[in-house]
Amino acid sequence: MKSNKEAPGVVSFELQGSLDISTKDSFLSEICDLxxxxxxxxxxxxxxxxxxxxxxxxxxxxxxKTLKSRxxxxxxxxxxxxxAEDFRLLGLHHAFPCVSGLEDALAEFNLREKIEENLxxxxxxxxxxxxxxxxxxxxxxxxxxxSAVFALDENGKIML
Length: 160
Prior knowledge:
Elements: E1 2-7, E2 10-19, H1 24-35, E3 41-52, H2 54-69, E4 73-77, H3 81-89, E5 98-99, H4 102-122, E6 140-142, E7 149-152, E8 158-159
Parallel strand pairs: 2-3, 3-4, 4-5
Antiparallel strand pairs: 1-2, 6-7, 7-8
């Protein structure tokens, strides 16, 4: 397992071999160091992850929960089909967003930062009725007042 700082607040962390009870302690040790840094977003590189147990999935779930509680997030990168199937069997395939490359993860984190900056500076309101909206994952929104559906572009601006 190794980590690299990719951008301010963004770290990539490579998993290798298995993530299970036998690798739990080393994983926790490295993750605790990262959590004590300025990391907000974590890209977990899974290309060399051969196997993940329910213990490993639980570790990732706890890590994701911790990051989200701090206003951050985690993406799994280059997940192998066997690992994706393990997530499906454990019912976790919706909990762990996956992207196909580190560049995609960095672009997604950059988009989230731009959206957050836009929300903080301008607030997000429905372009149809003016109701205040909250941020939701996936960058798509449905207004609770008028049911209008729209998305945000790469700069965090509303697109109809």
